[in-house]
Amino acid sequence: MASLSAQQLAANRGRLFKDRAARYGVTLGGIMVLVALLLIFFYLLYVVQPIFRSVDLTEEQSFSLPNSAGVKAVGMEEQAEIGYRLMSSGELQFFALHDKPAVERKAGDIISGDQVADAAKITSFASSLPVSKQYAYGLNDGSAVVLQPKFGVTFAENSETGLTERTITPRIETLNNGDPLVVDEQGQPLEQLAYDTDGEAMLFAAVQGGNNLLITKYTAEENFMTGEVTLKPIFSRISLNGNIDDLIVTPDLRQVMARRGNRVHVFDVGTGGDVTERELMVIDSREQGNATGMYLLAGASSVLLTHDSGLISQWFQVSTDQGRKYQYIRSFDAGSPVENIEVEYYRRTFYTVSENGDLGIFHTTSEADLYRGKPLEAKLQNVMVDPRANYLIMQSGDRFSVFDVDNEHPEVTWSAMWQEVWYEGYPEPDYTWQSTSGSDDFESKFSLVPIAFGTIKAAAYAMLFAIPIGLAAAVYTAYFMSPSVRKYVKPTVEIMEALPTVILGFLAGLWLAPVIERYLPGVIAILLLVPAAIILTAFLWSKLPSKIRNTVNDGRAALLLIPIVLLVGWFSFGLSPWVEETLFDGNVRGYLTNELGISFDQRNSLVVGIAMGFAVIPTIFSIAEDAVFSVPKHLSNGSLALGATPWQTLTKVVLLTASPGIFSAVMMGLGRAVGETMIVLMATGNTPIMDWNIFEGMRTLSANIAVEMPESEVGSSHYRILFLAAFVLFIFTFFFNTIAEFVRQRLRDKYSSM
Amino acid sequence: MKTWFKSGKPWIWLTAGSVSISLIAVIGLILMIGWRGLSFFWPAAIHEMSIEQADGSTRSLIGEIYDSESVPTLRVSNAGTIMDGYEEEEVTRYLMKIGNREYVPLDFAWVLGPAIRSDETPSGLAVIERTKDGNFYGYPIALEQQGEPVVTDGDLRTELFKRVERAVELNERAMALQENEIGAINYQLNQLNLERRSMELDGNVTQEALDDFERRREALQSEYLEYEKELFALREEAGRDSVIMRDMRGEEIKVPMYQVLDVNFPNDMGFFAKLGHFFQQIGKFVSEPPREANTEGGVFPAIFGTVFMVLLMSIIVTPFGVIAAVYLHEYAGKNAVTKLIRIAVINLAGVPSIVYGVFGLGFFVYMVGGSLDQVFYPEALPSPTFGTPGVLWSAVTLAILTLPVVIVSTEEGLSRIPSNLREGSLSLGATKWETIWRIVIPMASPAIMTGLILAVARAAGEVAPLMLVGVVKSAPMLPMDGNFPYFHLDRKFMHLGFHIYDVGFQSPNVEAARPLVYATSFLLITVIVGLNLTAIGVRNHLREKYRSLEQ
User: Fold this and answer.
1) CB contact under 8 A, B21 and A30
2) Using one digit for the tens of pLDDT, what is the confidence trace for B476-519?
3) CA–CA min distance B314, chain A (Å)
4) Assigned CATH topology for domain B47-122
5) What is the per-residue pLDDT across A253-268, written as a single tens digit (0 to 9) for each?
6) Would you call B70 an interface residue with chain A, using a CB distance cutoff of 8 Å?
7) Is B493 helix (H, G, I), strand (E, B) or coil?
């Protein structure tokens, strides 16, 4: 007996344990739903947040190199393993930037070096833009030596570890086999020098005697017989009245700019080497302060000017009535006067060194002030960035420090995404979405405004179509329709919700769009004629003898109207060619474009409005119908008993009571319209334009993601901005859905208390 | 009149009108897709027309009438066509499908009604379905065997059918050989390479193992050569015959038999022959792979991919959905957490599907898949195994997307089970879990089924997220085949919905592909509407049943 109850107890213990385990398991499963939603939220946020991170600098190495006072330029190769410096003595030295134990090399060790120009003859120095990475020493005999540090990379397997190791070997390449190129025919010393190359031709600009500008262009000519390449110079000389302070040459070799105080002379250089003065930029010294220096930005479309007020101003060419002119665009504040600017290789980011030793990091297009501070204890003198913009070298006296820079997305700021931005070459600030292009100099334009606008436009036209039909249909079905009909009508309309949107989109794009284009007057006629015909039918119906009228009551009017609507539709389409011929000379599209100035796309907002409207109608219909139907019957019965007509009861009692439900139906519908992808993808041209014109298309957030996501590089700014677009959609719909749900809950509580 | 307006009747009728419009839209849409989709399979008559050209000469056209429309005469004459002596305000234009793509500049031609001098559907016109360059229309005039004319005793047609059948059978055998035997060898070779690479990564490569690999590789290689020889033999056999056709230009063209899939004489078919052909075409459509950049052939891989993905998704979503619903209905108290979970369910249902796609791509594909590759498939790197869009990630992504559908439906089912059943069970001494497991869930199983059906219907129609997490326009291999481990969850797949988007909007020849898109749409709509109607049916049945239980 005792053993039996013990057994039972044991069995019960097992059952209780199972029961408890199940409780925890099921609870966990329930909470998983919440976790899933939070996971989506936080994962999207996790991918998006790096674009808003500020710049991070961490010091990795610090070493000293002797004789650094006379350094003209510092640079490094792509892997940031080896750096180099060009001395005023005409020597180029390569040195290690990081320790490399495999070859017993420490940061700061000199690897190799060479004398490239005679120290006694050097009078000036110039460097090209970082992309071509060439340097020129100007000599006292009117010539210049051009050189380029090069790095050979080899991979070899280490016999001990079996791993592949990279070896980088630096070497120096000099142009014209080390022979100086003549810049001044008369052989006078070059006091200032500017140089750049496009890979084939070279352009020098030099200053002599303070105000004489020499412009010399070298073009490579190939001898047809021997294939030997010779460099052929063309010389020009211009005198300016005043000392030239700064000189730059654009890498397309088309322009030379000479700064004389607060004036910048811009010269055009023709392909044949002929020089003409193009324009004179005048700097407003009261606004900006006096100019102190001039630099080219990556991409070479923009000029940066430093001012003694601590401002840096950006200028680029803008189309005006008098052709393309340099124009002041925007300025940045570095706090104290800037001594030196270093520009990045590809992006529009630049680094400033101020008088007080501050380092500043700015991005022009996004107007971002990314970093300002003193990374070194000693006064910063010089800063230098590597081709991939991952490392900075900072120089202070003989001390060199290598910093790791974390600055992945300088071009993205909140304001650049949501405000007008003045992009290089654009006539005015604008909202632009253009993520990719064929050219290397291209700057991605990530304004979310046009696509957010497109989303709202698409949703608005869809709602314009869906709200009246959806709500009216819901009200009729719930309140007037006879139950026997309602039993079939409701599921039929709800089946519409189940139709794949890809099919609606396909029909909209390939069937509806051409139909609307061909029968545009007919489509507009339908919008006017159908309501008119319905009212007319109703009127005629009320005049019929009551015997006939009673066979079909109001509850079946919807069925009665189907043939009427079909007939009117058929009539409108039949009328369409006739209207087109008599009123618009047989060409409505031409009339719209030529007479009214409205451009017409085949896949336009009207198509999207109709197609997406039909996708949204069932959502609105279903929720609103439920809300109206569940209004307690005693309310409407009471109203009817007091003598109100059914319509009065509907508008004054039923709709008022159900209004929160109707509101939540509209919100749900809006949420669906905002996020719908396939219909807009297929039924619009997907051009990111900002225009309310119903005959033009748009690009929405969701379609933009669908189109561009597969092509974006993982981790790039583009990728993260697409995630941001998804995040915006998520928040948008979260907001609508949560409001709708709250309102619905309240309504349910209210009904249950009535 | 005024009182009539005041009574509100016109407004009531207007609301009734919107119901009519909605009904017309739904039913019209389904009927239109059905009509256009099905008429694609019905053998169309082949017309031989003689068309008057601008210079007064005539040319003959052979083809199907594909579409027709009426346009204002003014527009036609404005476009430069001379319409002298034509008084009507409108003119009918016919779009003719003339096929023979490699011999004419365009395989579709517009013909103006008044320019047609004669139009007949002569007997003896054949349409040849080919593996390449679409249909061929013309009169068969002779047969050739290895370049020599075949003497037929009078009946060319029977002989033609016989030889087409032979060529088709040989082609099928060659195809089967290529897909099964040769495909298996390629797969094994690939696996062998991976095995070797993985051994290298582990660092225990021995000479013995290398020799073994080499031996196995050679064995496979020689096997491959055998099959290849067989394949070439089959192909050569199939290329034995050809048929000489006279096309609409009057030229004689040799169509090699190995290109021929089917020959028909629609003008000579009776109603029942046409009906038979109709069903045969439908059968081919659902069982054959697509050809010519998806613009011809069937949609079998898309059907297979859709079904496979949806089944996988069901396996994932059902337990989670049911557990969540059981929690919400049976365990959850009236507190803030429950409220939060309910909001989460509503929001999961409302979040745009493309957001799930973005999340799936970032989280499942790159993050989870990338980590799986690092841990389990280092030998295949840098080419990803699971770190790339595939059928598994699509199923998982859609499982989250359809989770609320299952939850809502299951919960509704649970709430309909009368509470006295639960109380009865509890009073007999069963624990809560036993009550749920033995009484509640079995009773709610039709509701769970309904939820699952609705989820499947939703997943089958969803395209936007799949575009990011695994669907492709053409998958060389199905996600299931005869090679171990039989299910290849890392593979990409084809999907009916995406097929519609791809063929309708990104195909090189949209005009030729359009009927195919309608047919695919019809197939998809049939499946989805069918599933939904089933779900509604099950639910209604269930409601009736519980109502009787409660009384």
Assistant:
1) no
2) 788 887 777 788 888 889 999 999 999 888 887 777 788 889 99
3) 16
4) SH3 type barrels. (2.30.30)
5) 888 888 888 888 898 8
6) yes
7) strand
Decide if B24 touches A, using CB distance below 8 A. Answer: yes
At B213-262, the pLDDT tens digits run 888 888 888 988 988 898 888 888 888 888 888 888 888 888 888 888 88
Collect all residues of chain B within an 8 Å Cβ-Cβ radius of residue A501.
461, 463-464
* Fold match, A118-147+179-282 / A449-753: no
Between chains, do B403 and A36 touch, taking CB under 8 Å as contact?
A: yes
Domain A449-753: CATH superfamily, name plus number? MetI-like (1.10.3720.10)
Q: Which residues of B are less than 8 Å from A26 in CB distance?
A: 323, 326-327, 330-331
pLDDT at A417 over 80: yes
Say if the Cβ atoms of A577 and B90 lie within 8 Å.
yes
Percent of chain A with pLDDT over 70: 97
* pLDDT tens digit sequence for B138-172: 888 888 888 788 877 667 888 888 888 888 888 88
Q: Do B344 and A645 touch (CB under 8 A)?
A: no
Q: How many CB atoms lie within 10 A of CB A187?
A: 12
Sequence ranges of the domains in chain A? 47-72+284-445, 118-147+179-282, 449-753
Q: Cβ of B25 and A496 within 8 Å?
A: yes
Contact list in A for residue B200 (CB cut-off 8 A) is none
Q: Does B343 touch chain A (CB under 8 A)?
A: yes
Q: Do B525 and A499 touch (CB under 8 A)?
A: yes
**What is this structure's pTM?**
0.89
Is residue B504 less than 8 Å (CB to CB) from chain A? yes
Pairing of strands B126-130, B136-145: antiparallel
A420: three-class secondary structure by DSSP: coil
Task: For domain A118-147+179-282, give its CATH number from 2.130.10.10, 3.40.50.300, 3.90.1300.10, 3.10.129.10.
Answer: 2.130.10.10
Please enumerate in sequence order all residues whose Cβ is within 8 A of that of A311, keeping only pairs 6 or more positions apart, or say none. Answer: A288, A289, A331, A332, A333, A334
Query: Is the CB of B16 less than 8 angstroms away from the CB of A561?
Result: yes
Test A19 with B431 for CB contact under 8 angstroms.
yes
Residues with Cβ within 8 Å of residue A389, at least 6 apart in sequence: A344, A345, A346, A347, A349, A405, A407
What is each CA distance from B159 to B109, B131, B141, B155, B162, in whole angstroms?
Answer: 33, 21, 12, 7, 5
What does the pLDDT read at residue B235?
86
Q: What is the pLDDT of residues A565-608, one digit of tens each?
A: 899 989 888 888 778 777 777 677 777 877 777 888 888 889 99
Question: What is the interface size between A and B, counted as CB pairs within 8 Å?
Answer: 334
Residues of chain B in contact with residue A42, where contact means CB-CB under 8 angstroms, are none
**Rounded to a whole number, what is the distance in Å from the CA of A551 to chain B's nearest CA?**
16
- Helical spans, DSSP H, in A585-654: 588-594, 605-629, 633-641, 646-649
Three-state DSSP string of B371-385: HHHHHHCHHHCCCCC
Q: Specify the pLDDT at position B358.
A: 94
- Residue A473 is predicted with a pLDDT of 93
Rounded-to-integer distance, Cα B146 and Cα B144, Å: 6
* Architecture, CATH, for domain B302-550: Orthogonal Bundle (1.10)
Residue A2 pLDDT: 55
How many Å apart are CA B361 and CA A145, to the nearest integer?
53
ipTM of the complex: 0.89
Contact yes or no for B257/B239 (Cβ under 8 A): yes
Query: Rounded to an integer, what distance in angstroms lies between the CA atom of residue A298 and that of residue A302?
Result: 8
Q: What is the pLDDT of residue B365?
A: 92
pLDDT (average), residues B9-37: 90
Structural domain boundaries in chain B? 47-122, 139-268, 302-550
H helix or E strand, kind and range, residue A325: strand A323-333
